[in-house]
Amino acid sequence: MKREILQLLGGDDRGFLYRCDGRKVAVSKMQWKVLGLFFSSRSCEFSQDFNPRLEELYEKLERKGIDFKVVQVSFDKKKSSFLKDFKDKPWLAVPYEDHSVFKKLTRRFDVQSPPALVVIGSDGEIKHTLHRHVLVKTKRKYCCDSCNEEWRGWSYYCSTCDFDLDIDYRVIEGRKAARSRGISLNKSEIRQICIAASEILLGEPTLLELEAPINVCGDIHGQYADLLRIFKMIGDPPSSRYLFLGDYVDRGKQSIETICLLLAYKIRFPYDFFLLRGNHECSSTNKTYGFYDECRRRYGERIWRVFNKCFDCLPVAAIVDDRIFCVHGGLSPELRSLDQIREMERPEEDAHEGLLCDLLWADPDSGIRGWEESNRGVSYTFGADVVAEFAEEHDLNLICRAHQVMQGGYKFFAGKRLVTVFSAPNYCGKYNNYAAVMRVEDADDYSFEVLKPKK
């Protein structure tokens, strides 16, 4: 096993690791040491929170004379981020430029997102693996059945570990057996999902900056069985990456199953699964259109409030490859710079006017120029000239939004400068519309997968 790991690290005479001061250390020198492979990212809140604990452990073992070496494996997209993250660390790192080593290690240990830790003994045996573990802050003290150590402040998802935030795994795996029937969760489990998801969401910027390839989905509206059909058509996370544009609840019969599954995927694969806020992720809206009644009937009003506290934490827009602007509703006459979105504070409750309101509610209208008040009674409609001006000013190839039913699942506007994507087939059981998912390969290469209504 140890020989295999050294080979994965580039273990011939030319293989080397870096210290934070830039000096090289030969991989061959790791032969008889205890190794900790630490998969991390500067942009990962949990990686950054876990760093001090790992440094403390590292220094503690060194004082005891245990020859323990941590090797950092970076998930960072940019070298500058990696260098900032690695600065002043007491351990070693895989060369950032060596993508082959990164791919080999993540594949070998099935690490799909940071943070993760794999400890390999001097005899080559894996002592304790934390890959596939979701790190979530928890106040409770618990004992890991795998390593028999007591922990406080972190929970790791592991089928052999004793902790109380393994809900994401049960929801995700349970959906396969439950199919359209959904998953049965108790109130405590739903609260834990919402708390864990809220921490992750607040660790993200209000304007997400994402890289392709990624699949963009529009409204789901509680159509849980159709959400499962989308995953079957496109592929499950994290092998298929997703950005959802909001409106997960209301209208459909299984809003709770829908939002719990989406939040569970967010918890488990935070760097491959992204959720934006829609106008139905606001308490003033979802109190009227079905979600409140579903929560009250099945769990009570308090759970509805718990969900809405989580919704207040959702990002409100995203930009893919610097060229595709994604939002639930539309543009705003107040929006002059994307920095205005970046500077929006969260958690943020319902907005009935202003920038947030427009991003969630506004619609394009081919019959007007400029701006007009919306017949929805909130926000505005905007013409093709507004789209063209906004795209030009911000150097955008496309604006992608949701919020409206499209009979074919998607529809272009303003000379293909804007597209509306809707992902709930046969919406409300009466529209007989198709659903669509936009597959983005890069800023200039996108296509649409269409899902027919189920007969």
Number of domains: 3
Query: What is the averaged pLDDT score?
Result: 86
| CATH level-four homologous superfamily name of the largest domain | Metallo-dependent phosphatases
Known CATH architecture of the largest domain: 4-Layer Sandwich
What low-confidence regions span 5 or more consecutive residues with pLDDT below 50? 128-140, 142-149, 151-167
The main pleated sheet reads as:
6 strands, mixed
Helix amount, in percent?
A: 25-40%
Class based on secondary structure composition and strand pairing: alpha/beta
CATH topology of the largest domain: Purple Acid Phosphatase, chain A, domain 2
Keywords: Hydrolase, Manganese, Metal-binding, Protein phosphatase
EC number: 3.1.3.16
Protein name: Serine/threonine-protein phosphatase
Domain Serine/threonine specific protein phosphatases: 276-281
What is the topology?
Elements: H1 2-8, E1 16-18, E2 24-26, E3 34-40, H2 45-63, E4 68-74, H3 79-86, E5 92-93, H4 99-108, E6 116-120, E7 126-129, E8 141-143, E9 150-152, H5 167-178, H6 187-202, E10 207-210, E11 214-217, H7 224-234, E12 242-244, H8 255-268, E13 273-275, H9 283-286, H10 291-298, H11 301-311, E14 317-320, E15 324-327, H12 339-342, H13 355-361, E16 363-364, E17 371-373, E18 380-382, H14 384-393, E19 398-401, E20 410-413, E21 418-421, E22 435-442, E23 445-451
Parallel strand pairs: 3-4, 4-5, 10-14, 11-12, 12-13, 15-19, 16-18, 19-21
Antiparallel strand pairs: 1-2, 3-6, 6-7, 8-9, 11-22, 14-15, 17-18, 20-21, 22-23
Helix pairs in contact: 5-8, 6-8, 6-11, 10-11
